[in-house]
Structure formats: C-alpha cells, structure tokens
Write a structure and sequence with these properties.
Helices cover 37% and strands 21% of the residues. It has helices at residues 11-36, 50-65, 88-107, 123-132, 148-156, 203-207, 215-227, 253-261, 281-289, 306-311, 318-331, 350-363, 390-413; strands at residues 41-46, 69-70, 78-83, 112-117, 138-140, 162-164, 185-189, 191-192, 211-212, 232-236, 268-272, 296-298, 336-343, 367-372, 419-427, 434-438, 444-448, 457-465, 469-476. It binds iron/sulfur cluster.
C-alpha cells in the first residue's frame, strides 16, 4: 500500500491526463472488438452505501467512454466489484463471487476481473486475494478511483495482477465521465472521508481524512445535472455536517444548502449522513427556510446510553441528542426523522439497552436501520472485552425491531388521506398498472400511472397506509 499520495499535478491537469488514458484504452478496446467481431461487455457490481453507488457511476462512465457496453450480468468481459467492508458478511459475499468467477474466467480468456472500494483498503484482504484469488487482474482502493482509466489501460495490456492502493490522498479530481443510474435523480459527493473515528467504525481507516469539494464545483455539477433532466439530488458525505472545514475559504454545510437551493429547475434536495455532534442551529434553520430541502433528517443515534455513546466515541450523550430532536421538531414540525442503531456493542448492559429503547419511544422515529454489532478488525471496539453473546444480542435486536416497526407504522398512519407531492421513480415491479414514487419524507407510494410520469412530481392522495408504504391515487400531475 502506497503512503499518502503527494500532489504533483493539479486536479485539472489530472483530469486531462485521465482523458488521455481513456483515448488509449478506447484504442485497445476497439482493436480487441475487431479481433472478436463483437462489443466488449462490462458488469459493475456495487456493495454498500450511496457513496459507493456514486463511485460506481464513475466507473461505468469511464468504461462506456472507452467503448465497453453493459453486459447482462457477471458473465461479461470486464467485471468489477466495488466493495464495502462496514460489516464482516460484506467481505464474505465478495469471496463467494470470486470463487464462482475464477471458474467462469477459464472459459473466457478475454475476461478481466477488478476489485475496488473500502474492502481493498485492508491489507489482510489484499494479501488473501493475492494468495487465493489469482483470477483477479486489478485491485485498487477508495483514494485513487479517479485513476481508473489509467489502471484500466495497464490491466488491458498486462497478464499479471495490478495492485494500486493508497493510504490516503488530499486530491479531488473533477469532471470525469459519470453514467447515472437514474435520469431524474442523482447523488452528488460534497466531501470524502471522515475524521470522527467512532470506535466501532472502519470507515475512517478506509476512506481517509475529511476533504470537501469546492462549493463552485458542486454548484456547477448540480447545474449540469439539472440541465440534463435531474430534479432531485442527494448531497453525499460520511458526515455532511462538517462540510467545508478544510476548504481554503471555509463555508458551512448550511451555507452550501442555501446556495444549492438557489439553483433554477432543481425540485428536491436530500442529504446524508448527518452526525449529531455537528448539527447546528444554522443547519436546522436552512432546512426550515430552503423550500427545496426535503423535510427528512437521517440522524444516527447508534445507542441511547450515554455511557455506551462515550465508549463509541460519538461526542454526544442521550440528553444532547434528545435536545437536538426537540429543536428540529420545534423549527420544522413535519420533519421526518430516521436513524441508525447498533445493538450488542461490547459491554452493552440490559440497562444500556433500555436507554436505547427509551430514546426510540421518546423520539418516535419514522423509520430506523437497526444493526447487530459487527466486529471490524482494526477498530478499537474489536479488541474490547465483553463482546456480547449472540443469543442476548438477538433477543434485544428483536425487541428493538418490534418497537421501531410499531412506532413507524403508527406514524405512517397519520398521513393517510392526505394529498402529498410524490416524485415518481419507476414502474411498480409487481403490478404494471402502478408506478412507485417517494414522498418528501422518503416514504414509498404506489399508485395507478404510466411510464411517462417517471421523473415528475405528482400530487397524490394517500388512500391507504400499508405500514411502511402507501397506496394512492393521482390528483394532479
Ligand atoms: S461518523 Fe462515525 S460511524 Fe460515521 S463514517 Fe465516521 S467514523 Fe464511521
């Protein structure tokens, strides 16, 4: 693994260099296609979070730029896994796929297999792949994804495994090709990395230190997206609330939100993830005052016990978190609040868990992602004593899930009968006469409609609440 990537060329120059490599890769691909008499196909498989999903759109953008076309599945000429390592089972899934692909590759000598993403930032993983999965042609990490065209060229011209992993970088390269998954909505990275070092989390070790994009580059990207038909954007960062701190001319996330809100043609602004320790009054005011910002806040709690929160290194306690929720609701009464909760953190007692249940009962979340603690090698929590027995964790997890679901379906009922704006996202998978969309608070609605409604915001009457989604009818498109 290479140390910190010392900046030798500027971001702009790097963009030019990478387009040169794309030209070179296109020539190699065209020559191969002429030999085979067919297109070369690709398959990008994404694991994990929305940050990874956005990175995969960059990989697809470059692959299509150099001439690859999308294959049906992993039986393609270039297969890349964009990996996640937040939980142990994510790693095992990748090893399972590699086992299958190494046999398939024997039948397709043109095939190239690549791995990138957070899992590749772990030395033990790279050593395991070098030893046990010789079928892999390219391994790179989270810090040099912008060099994909260059690495692709080297891979296409080589038969040996290429490994290029960096410990960290402070470079941000703009304007590389991106192929969006959705025509009407898009994720937009505003920052990379995390400085919080929550004791259970591997992200700071695999995504590096926080670095924010220049606001002018973010605004320019969003203006381009809107001109290209996008009406909803999701501002992405591990902790968007600390956006802008490392900029030469620092601005706050609240200021960025207000600037993005001015963009003509944009309809909806979402963002994730917010860390409670950096949730400021300015940000709450910006959510209240910016008409395009969705009234939905994802505010991870992780635990309701102040003692556990301290061991987790979360920098807030139970009272502080509850005060934030009160402030949010005082300023934005219809705000939907969702969260992340970990059950079974080392040393968690029944009393600690009851504190979590107490916060859930008092906050009454619209929904919650509940996780069983997953030991991540290299994090402080992994070497903590008192790992909780599985049966105890499971029993607590079931109790929590029951409470969360009772509350969120009860809350969902409150909107039944209301007419609300819905962004139509797709045709319903089960029933072709229905379309599926999302409310401002991110809840799902199915209602009768046609393909041409996709990407538009319709007024929909929420006729029936089905617990976690609604059945509706269009009032006005
Ligand atoms: S804020 Fe904490 S949990 Fe979130 S990515 Fe950073 S270290 Fe991980």
């Amino acid at each position: 693994m290479r140390d910190f990537e010392v900046v030798t060329v500027s971001g702009e120059e790097e963009t030019k260099i990478q387009y040169e490599y794309m030209k070179k890769a296109r020539e190699i691909v065209a020559k191969k296609e002429a030999e085979l008499g067919r297109n070369l196909t690709y398959c990008v498989h994404t694991f994990g979070c929305q940050m990874n999903a956005r990175d995969s759109e960059k990989l697809v953008g470059i692959l299509e730029q150099v001439g690859y076309v999308e294959g049906e599945d992993e039986h393609s000429d270039f297969v890349i896994y964009n990996t996640c390592t937040v939980r142990e089972n994510a790693n095992n899934k990748v090893y399972g796929r590699l086992g299958y692909l190494s046999n398939y590759k024997k039948k397709n000598p043109v095939m190239k297999i690549a791995l990138c993403g957070c899992m590749m930032q772990e030395n033990v993983v790279v050593e395991k792949i070098k030893k046990s999965y010789r079928c892999v042609d390219l391994i790179f990490g989270t810090h040099n994804i912008y060099k994909f065209a260059e690495l692709l060229c080297r891979t296409l011209e080589s038969d040996s495994m290429i490994i290029d992993i960096w410990k960290d970088t402070d470079k941000i390269v703009e304007d590389l090709p991106i192929k969006r998954k959705f025509s009407f909505k898009s994720g937009v990275n505003i920052m990379f990395g995390c400085n919080n070092f929550c004791s259970y989390c591997i992200v700071p070790y695999v995504r590096g230190r926080e670095r924010s994009r220049e606001p002018k580059d973010i605004i320019r990207e969003i203006e381009g997206l809107v001109a290209d038909g996008v009406c909803e954007i999701m501002l992405l960062g591990q902790n968007v609330n600390s956006y802008g701190k490392n900029l030469e001319n620092p601005i706050s996330f609240a200021e960025l939100l207000c600037a993005v809100n001015e963009i003509e043609g944009l309809k909806r602004i979402r963002f994730m993830t917010s860390h409670p320790k950096d949730l400021s009054d300015d940000l709450i005011a910006a959510i209240r005052d910016c008409d395009k910002v969705c009234h939905h806040m994802h505010l991870p709690l992780q635990s309701g016990s102040s003692r556990v929160l301290q061991v987790m290194n979360r920098h807030y306690d139970k009272e502080h978190y509850l005060k934030l929720v009160d402030k949010l609701r005082a300023e934005i009464p219809d705000i939907a609040i969702t969260t992340d909760i970990i059950v079974g953190f080392p040393g968690e007692t029944e009393e600690d868990f009851e504190e979590t249940m107490d916060v859930v009962s008092r906050v009454r979340y619209d929904s919650a992602f509940t996780f069983i603690y997953s030991k991540r090698t290299g994090t402080p929590a992994a070497s903590m004593e008192e790992q909780i027995p599985e049966d105890v964790v499971k029993e607590r997890f079931d109790r929590l899930l029951k409470l969360v679901q009772e509350i969120s379906s009860d809350k969902a009922m409150q909107l039944e009968g209301r007419i609300m704006p819905v962004l139509v996202e797709e045709m319903n998978e089960q029933d072709a006469s229905l379309v599926t969309g999302r409310l401002d608070n991110n809840s799902v609605v199915h209602f009768p409609g046609t393909q041409d409604l996709i990407g538009t915001i319709c007024q929909v009457k929420l006729k029936e609440c089905k617990g976690f989604y609604y059945l509706g009818e269009i009032v006005e498109s």
